[in-house]
UniProtKB/TrEMBL annotation:
<dbReference type="GO" id="GO:0009102">
    <property type="term" value="P:biotin biosynthetic process"/>
</dbReference>
<comment type="similarity">
    <text>Belongs to the class-III pyridoxal-phosphate-dependent aminotransferase family.</text>
</comment>
<dbReference type="InterPro" id="IPR015421">
    <property type="entry name" value="PyrdxlP-dep_Trfase_major"/>
</dbReference>
<dbReference type="InterPro" id="IPR015422">
    <property type="entry name" value="PyrdxlP-dep_Trfase_small"/>
</dbReference>
<keyword id="KW-0670">Pyruvate</keyword>
<keyword id="KW-0032">Aminotransferase</keyword>
<protein>
    <submittedName>
        <fullName>Beta-alanine--pyruvate transaminase</fullName>
    </submittedName>
</protein>
<dbReference type="GO" id="GO:0030170">
    <property type="term" value="F:pyridoxal phosphate binding"/>
</dbReference>
<dbReference type="InterPro" id="IPR049704">
    <property type="entry name" value="Aminotrans_3_PPA_site"/>
</dbReference>
<dbReference type="GO" id="GO:0004015">
    <property type="term" value="F:adenosylmethionine-8-amino-7-oxononanoate transaminase activity"/>
</dbReference>
<dbReference type="Pfam" id="PF00202">
    <property type="entry name" value="Aminotran_3"/>
</dbReference>
<keyword id="KW-0663">Pyridoxal phosphate</keyword>
<dbReference type="InterPro" id="IPR015424">
    <property type="entry name" value="PyrdxlP-dep_Trfase"/>
</dbReference>
<dbReference type="InterPro" id="IPR005814">
    <property type="entry name" value="Aminotrans_3"/>
</dbReference>
<keyword id="KW-0808">Transferase</keyword>
Length: 439
């Protein structure tokens, strides 16, 4: 006997979503503009997440929309291997002016996950190219999220994303995460305690020997696993250990890139420069799928200016440097520059932090943390099990016309960088109401 269902919601296998549960209470978005979405039943929703940490300049910005439309009419597609198009070079050049010094070579991908795979492959290939071919081990971190492809879930540290898929990549190890509610709860900005956790990398060097380790990858601020801000001194300590042992340091800036923490990149906010940096999301303001890896020039030069057997990298995608993505990206950079968006989070962060931290003391709130325009509120798990209480808060906020995000017991916010103070107030007050009701 078949159960009643709405056939129109059946065929689409939704990513990271319980389809069955979704169908009971569908949330369908049909329009977006500036700070707001509109639902299929005509409700306006304030976007507290920048879509999914990506629409940093707000939705449907006319300049970006027009650039995409113009490009689609002018040249829809160009093969990226042994061919090029001017906007790809222009976009890479413009990006290289925003990155920390030295990270001035740009490899284009189509997503954060692809950026991670690309960075890991470049790291392995580079160690081999410089005669250190025994360096095949990759180090990630617990609670790290690096996308969903095999390299990314292997170095990633989310059990749910790993356990369904077998043994994953061999030769991967993990350092501990830095989340420490006992010492750091309710920190504003970087927590005071935990720099010494970077010494986990020394422990792995002692265990495996540096001659077997190619690279370590971390998110400067872990986003998807609940807005975990690096303790003061932690990233510098990781950098020092990498330098001592010839290990490449990769920052995954898929969320933190393009202004989220108050500077164009978190590497600049925290004053620590990695050897490779992965980005996506805000690179095109979320309009067209795209990612990139920023690479130190000397790493690039090892391949591209190397001996005859090394004059290219055997890696790339059909849609690397897609013309629509490059056109969107150039218009996005223009928008960011004209409106000062890449540093706007540093102007608003105190106001945002004041609002967030005013939620301290509400029932079940066990931590509030923030940097730039990203914040997390952690709840004690309820009797229904981990994540349920936070998910109910998310649903309540959505009913009230505000979109936040939940990950486990954490409610995360990362609004478009165009947000106004009154909209920050609305975000916080909506959450306050939902938290009180959840009690
Ligand atoms: N790395 C990080 C740090 C991310 O936050 C994400 C996505 N949230 C990814 C990689 C994967 O990006 P994508 O979903 O575009 O593949």
């Amino acid at each position: 006997m078949s159960t009643p269902h709405d056939p129109s919601l059946d065929a689409y296998w939704m990513p990271f979503t319980a389809n069955r549960q979704f169908k009971q209470r569908p949330r369908l978005l049909t329009q977006a503009s500036g700070m707001h979405y509109r639902t299929d039943d005509g409700r306006e929703i304030l976007d507290g997440v920048a879509g999914l940490w990506c629409v940093n300049a707000g939705h449907a910005r006319p300049r970006i929309v027009q650039a995409i439309a113009r490009q689609a009419g002018e040249m829809d597609y160009a093969p990226p291997f042994q061919m090029g198009h001017p906007k790809a070079f222009e976009f890479a050049d413009r990006l290289s002016q925003l990155t920390p010094a030295g990270l001035n070579r740009v490899f284009f991908t189509n997503s954060g996950s692809e950026s991670v795979e690309t960075a890991l492959k470049i790291a392995l290939a580079w160690q081999r190219a410089r005669g250190q071919g025994t360096r095949t081990r990759l180090i990630g971190r617990e609670r790290g999220y690096h996308g969903v492809n095999f390299g990314g879930i292997s170095v990633g540290g989310i059990v749910g994303n790993r356990k369904m898929f077998g043994t994953l990549l061999g030769g991967v190890d993990h350092i501990r995460h830095t989340h420490d509610l006992e010492r750091n709860a309710f920190s504003r900005g970087q927590p005071a305690h935990g720099a010494e956790l970077a010494d986990d990398l020394e422990r792995l060097v002692a265990l495996h020997d540096a001659s077997t380790i190619a690279a370590v990858i971390v998110e400067p601020v872990a986003g998807s696993t609940g807005v975990l801000i690096p303790p003061q001194g932690y990233l510098q300590r990781l950098r020092d250990i990498c330098d001592r042992h010839g290990i490449l340091l990769i920052f995954d800036e898929v969320i933190t890139g393009f202004g989220r923490t108050g500077q164009p990149f978190a590497a600049q906010t925290f004053g620590v420069t990695p050897d490779l940096m992965t980005v996506a999301k805000g690179i095109t303001n979320g309009c067209v799928p795209m990612g990139a890896v920023f690479v130190k020039q000397e790493i690039h030069d090892t391949f591209m200016n190397g001996p005859e057997h090394l004059i290219e990298l055997f890696h790339g995608y059909t849609y690397s440097a897609h013309p629509l993505a490059c056109a969107a990206g150039l218009a996005t950079l223009d928008t960011y520059a004209e409106e000062g968006l890449l540093t706007r989070a540093s102007e608003l962060q105190d106001y945002f932090a004041d609002g967030l931290h005013s939620l301290r003391g509400l029932p079940h709130v066990i931590d509030v943390r923030n940097i730039g325009l990203v914040g997390g509120v952690e709840l004690a798990p309820g009797p229904e099990g981990p994540g349920r209480r936070a998910f109910n808060v998310f649903l309540d906020c959505f009913e009230q016309g505000v979109m936040v995000r939940t990950t486990g017991d954490i409610i995360a916010m990362s609004p478009p960088l165009i947000i106004e103070r009154a909209q920050i107030d609305r975000l916080i007050e909506t959450l306050r109401t939902a938290l009180k009701r959840a009690a």
